[in-house]
Structure formats: structure tokens, C-alpha cells
């Protein structure tokens, strides 16, 4: 059976693929549906789009930022589309921005709402005088999510606009759906694809029926010749989401050794072992175990065999060398980085590449290392490290600079052979090596611990030495207020629905303190499921530019195995204080402000997964989680059947960074507004306005194919071996936010790490 082909026009929104998959899901054996997605600026001239029309039976114009009144600057080709008489018999469904553009083309006005609704669920009431087939089999009232700053007005005297549904709120009665009288054009102001909307699938089914009756079920019109099929294929490729590597590549050999031991369930055991191992180590530990996170701790132990990959985004170079190579000097690395051409020395390789090719080369590096074995363990060895915020999509690196010391790395990953894993639930410890035998020093530390297991008490000091003072440069309240107002302005104009506004703080200690010493105090003070310690002294004679990272993050970004992918966005924060109880926090976290904040990111995360994978489910809807200093609202979204897809977890990581909880929605425009304007001025004094390591992710891509990455928040990092520590903190601003409330929330989050210096 030939499919109905739908052209989906995306306006760089973060809910696009929720709609696309909803359409595809309505496919049946008798009436298959196929969607091709383009951007609203894929064609600059409507004539180009018209040439493609014979390939399709219907168009869906999706939601998005911007205002149709601003014309093609905001909505691209959509402006011309609704004006073109050649489309008057062509079935079109507009959603939110698409709906507003459709009504605007008929002479209605589009104006700002007085009270804006982002991520709010309302009853949609059908206009009982006009029940159109698009609402066939609907109840008179149903619930749907609204994400809009603007709305359609002055439509009543426009004959071509037939109102089909309304809602009512503080703004009065608002148009929620309409049909264009003489054309098969429909539109809805609400979001049928949101996970909180009812009967969304029905709307699509009914729209497909409209298409079916337009093509009169004549399947012949659906046949495409070879040439047209090629054109369709090329059009699909205009949005290029190519997989990073081919997971079917077979590994040549699969040497690894794993030995297991019974140990205590106490999560402090991880740190006890770390204290015993004198060599360098990276830690991804749980210092707070709960039902669904923090079950595992991982200690990764780099050795002379370990390969270090460092990407410098601003100069588009990646260095590759061995961990603490005796023959590698800092000077040599600096000269090689300054050389224009790629460098291939025996002990150092410098590749000229941008971030896109960095991701692809990671795939090349890993594809022959992946063994489909011991997949029940999260990690058996593999790439471990940090990806900064600027490694994500839509973010730019600072412009290239001249340098005399090592530039600031944007990604740093080490291929680890030897590691220790501890499962705090089952009380099992595993020593793993990707070489042919387990390292002696590690085994000795483990044996030691097993023998003195009765006393797990750590006795780590919860304060830093008192002979050191700290100079702390915090965000300025006035600048914050200005940035907050800018956020409100962008949201009121309809450019963004939620903006994660973050600030940077710098701490300069009067003398250098070992990162490990600070880590110990932070972990004692702020236990968290994703406690991280990374000290990258990978070049022996480099003591000034060592990247150090200490984290107590509550937030998992992404975890994957060969079948599934899980994302756990946190959105919604309540400070813990004397009178605050979990009951009270839950009440606050379920108010429209926090609910909307979480729902927007939940729908965005569904979109990030749906972009690559068809089988996505919301596993947990807005649960309240308790941490040392805050209560947080958390949702869990999971994708299934990865093994049936051409994508793997690393693709999901690449395409969904930066984490939606750190950007806001829609992701593309919000990231651009933050980087080019809002945070550029707010944070200009630190990192030149870049977020750097903060807001990025830390974790691993294991040689057994698994991966797990946490969000870099409630953390601190130093590019210069602890001379300066940088801390980021922020929170999502919505139209319901108050400046005082957000400032207070930002300070609360900042304090969770900054407290060690105070
Ligand atoms: C931005 C931060 O946190 C993010 C913002 C949150 C919020 O807005 O409620 C919650 C968790 C994080 O995703 C931070 O801790 O700095
Ligand atoms: N979700 C949307 O499509 C929003 C449309 C428009 N930018 C508004 O804010 O009203």
C-alpha cells in the first residue's frame, strides 16, 4: 500500500518530533503515513516548495518561536505558503505558530496575551454550532496543553475563518481552533502532541481523513516514479541526522578480565577505596543511593596505556596522546597546537576538526572497541570524561585567541582500561580490566578494604583548612535583574517559552588546595547520586593548566544500554529550610509555575528522543525528590528498541546536548538568545560569557556499549589547577517567575557547592 505523504514544516521548535511521531503513529496497514520534515527556511522561495507539492498529500505547519506578524524573518516560507492560491485545495494543518500564521493570512490579528500560558493545561471547548469533521468523535470539552505568548484576535468578522473551539482564562475567551471556509485548512492553537493533551491522536486521524477524502482514496495519485522518489529522498536529507557510527561493526578481539567480591552496601566504601589507591583516578560515585539512581559507583584508573582525547573548540583542534607519557612535554603540545597543519608525531597527534567531526571521530575511535558482553554491568572500561556546554548544538565557541598556555578544553575524554565498580544495592564490587590481567595496585587496595570492612567510617573533614581565605566574585544583583527582564521580554514576544538563566561565580583561594581535598569536603557536605571527581594531569610537566572538576550533581542527563535510553530532566526547585517539609514542597512543586516549567522540558526531552527514535514513553511524571539542600521535581522519559534502530546512545547524546533542563525551550532560539545577548552581558567577567564545563555533562561510554552522563550542576571546575574555581548556578525563568524568587533559587543552588568556601 502506498503511503499518504505529509510534509512537516518545522520552525526550529522543540516539540516538532512529538508531532511528527504522533502523525506517524496514526499509520495503519490500510492507510500508511509517511512524514518528511523540513525547516521553515529550507526553501527561501515558495516556487521551490511548490515544485515539491506533487510529492505530498498534506502539509502540517508546526509550532515554534516568533510571531507571524513579523513575516518571513520569523516564520520563513510559512508566510508565503498561506498566501499562495495554488495551495487553496491542499490540506494543511497548522499547530500553534502554524495556526496563528494561517489566521493572520486571512486578515485576523495576532496579539500578545495579557496573561501568557506556557505549559499550562486547559479545557478546550468545541464550538457546538460548528462541529467540523476535524473534531469527529471528540467530547464537547477536552484537556490540552498550551504554549503560547500570542493569540488570534479580530477574527469574528473574517468570513473565511470558521471558529471551531475556544478556551477561557484570565484573558477572556480565546480562539483555540479554526477552519478556513473554502480551503481544507485547519489549525489549533493548543498543542495536541503534548504528553498532557487529550485526543491528540484523534486530531491527526481526522486530518488524515480530510486528506483521504481530498485524494478520494485514489491510490494512483499516491504512486511516485523513480525520479520523484529520489527527490523525496534528497528532501529528507536536508535535515541531516546521520548516525555517528555503525553499531554492527565487529570487534577484532575482546580481551577483558572481571573479578567480583562481596562488600558492604555503604556508599562511603567507594571513597574509602579511593583513599587507598594512591594513583590518579576519576570518580563517578554515588554518595546518595535511592531507588532509581546512585546504585553504582565507578572508579576509573588511568594508566600509561590510556589514550587522552582533548578537544579545543575555539581553535578547532583535538589532541590525542597517552596518559602521562614520559616523553611528552607541555611545550611540544603547545607548539603542535599552534601549527596550522595536522600533526602526527609518534607520541602526539593533533587533528584539525570542528565539533561535528569530533563526534564522528569518537565513533571511529570506539567502534572497534565495543564488545557486546557483560552488558549487565554499567561499565567495563571505556571513554570517561567531560563534555562542556559549548559541545552541544546551536552553541558557538568563543572566537579563536592567541595563547601561550594551553587553551581551555571543551571536551576531555580518557580511554580507561582499569576500573572498579561497586553496586551499593547488591553489595558487589567488580574489578575490571580491558587488558589481560587485573592491575596489582588496584587488587591490593581492594583486598585491604575487604579485610577491614567493618569500619567504613570515612572521617573526611567537612571544612577546608582555615588558614586559607577565598576571594569570591558573585553575580551582580543589578545585572541579574537586567538579564531577568530580558528573559521576560523575549517570552512576552513569543520568542521563547522558558529560559534557563545561569550565572557564573569565581573563587580564588589565597593558596592552591588539592582538588581531592575540596572534593572530600564537598561530598561530605552535599551528598548526591552523581558525585564526580576529575583531575586531568595527563601531561607530566603541566602543573598550571590542569583541568579539575568536582561535582555533586543530582541530575542524570542520559543513560543508555543496547536496548534503551533514559533521560531524567529536573525542573522545579524548592529550597529546604526549617519549616519546609516534603508535603509542603510537593504542594509548591505542583503549582502552575513549577508544573509548567517541568512539562515544557518534559515535552522537549520527548522531542529530543523522538527526533531519533520512534518508541518513547514517559516513565515517571513529575516526582518529588529530596536532596541535602533542595527538593526537586523530576520526570523520566525512556526510549525503547534501540537495537532496531540505526542510532545508538551516543547519537542521542550528540543530538540532545546541551541538556534541555539547562537551556529552556525552544532549545535553538533560547540557546542563541542566552549566548548572544542575555548571558553575554551577565557573565562577561567570567569565561567571556561562555558557560564552559558548567551545563555540560560528565560520564562514560563503556566498551560494552553502555553509557551514563550526568548534568554538570552543583559543581565547580578549574582550568588552572585550582588557582581559580568557577561555579555556575541558575534556574528556569518562565512568565510566572518573580525576580526575587529566581534570584533566591539561584543562590540556593550556588550555595550547594559554594558552601565549602564559606
Ligand atoms: C541550572 C541549574 O539547575 C537546573 C535548573 C533547575 C530548575 O530550574 O529548577 C533544576 C535542575 C537543573 O536542571 C543549576 O543547578 O545551576
Ligand atoms: N508554541 C508556539 O507555536 C508558539 C507560537 C508563538 N511563538 C507564541 O508564542 O504564541
UniProtKB/TrEMBL annotation:
One annotated Gene Ontology cellular component of this protein: cytoplasm
GO molecular function terms noted in the UniProt entry: 4-amino-4-deoxychorismate synthase activity
GO BP field: 4-aminobenzoate biosynthetic process; folic acid biosynthetic process; L-tryptophan biosynthetic process; tetrahydrofolate biosynthetic process
The Glutamine amidotransferase domain, residue ranges: 8-208
UniProt-listed PROSITE patterns: GATASE_TYPE_1
PANTHER family (alphabetical): AMINOBENZOATE/ANTHRANILATE SYNTHASE (PTHR11236), AMINODEOXYCHORISMATE SYNTHASE (PTHR11236:SF18)
Protein name per the record: aminodeoxychorismate synthase
Species per Swiss-Prot/TrEMBL record: Maudiozyma saulgeensis
Organism placement in taxonomy: Eukaryota, Fungi, Dikarya, Ascomycota, Saccharomycotina
